[in-house]
Each structure stands twice: as C-alpha cells, then as structure tokens.
Amino acid sequence: MNDSAPHITLAQRLAENPDGVLERIAEEHGVSLLLATEALPKAHRTIIDGQLFESVMEDITTWGEILFIVHTKGIVLECKGALPPGSSARGYYNIHGDSPIGGHIKAERCRRIAFVSRPFMGRASCSVQFFDVDGEAMFKIFVRRDADRNLLPAQVALFGKLRDRLASVE
Fold it and tell me: Which listed site, 33, 69, 70, 126, has its alpha carbon 20 to 30 Å from 81?
C-alpha cells in the first residue's frame, strides 16, 4: 500500500485517477500488473483471453506504424514501426519483415490481453497489453500520435473495432 494514503484501495485509487505508470501503481499496491489493469474502471479496460493472441497480432499488422513497448524493471524499450505478419513455429510466434519490430514471442505464455484506454501523463492513450502466466506484461502496443501528440484517429478506430469484435467472443 502507498504509505501516504494507506486507506485507499487500488480500485479506489484508479477510479479517482486512472493516470500514471501502471507498473509503478501495481508495485505500490503489491500486485501484478495484470491485477492492477483489472482494477481499472471498466470504461478504461477490456480484457480478453490470451488464446486470441494470433488474431490480435494479425489485426494489428494492418494498423500501420505503431509503438511497441517492452517495460521491465530494468528498461522501457520503445520501438516504432509497422508490425510485420507473424507465424507460429518451434514454440514461438515469429515476426519478421521490413520493420524494426521483429523477434520471437512465446505466445503460449500469453494468458490475458487487455485493451486499455485511459489518460497517461494527462493525455488520452490506447494500448493493447499482453500479459503472461505470471500476470506481468510481455509487451504493449500503443496507438501512435501525430505531430501535435494527439492519437491518430484512424488507429483509434481500428483499436476500438478490434476490441469490440474480440470482446464479443469472450
């Protein structure tokens, strides 16, 4: 619990102010990042089964340039580029192509996928967050911003369409 306000639960904190670095908020409350994400007000998150991993990834390949983030305790790695198509082989979901984004993802470890729409640093943000079996982030994909730091409307629409389509599968 946060020492400055020990009486405030995680859900109360996020209901009052959903802004902030979720990793830090989760740590302050002694929970996994997935539990912190689940504590967001429902208006800010839609969580689906990780078995929809390939469907989500395939759809995002059509979004154009995205922001791909890996956030661990030791690094926040950001990579901008189009998500190349992937394929499953040898226990990994492999992404290769003409993009700075590439690699091998152990998709079977993906337990939950969250579509998160919330303020971040005072500005609207939309991200697709992939959580492993331990409730920690594997990686996150963010809707890009224009030169004025506003979310790209076309990507926001694609984000919403994918979220709504897959939420109905749940």
Answer: 33
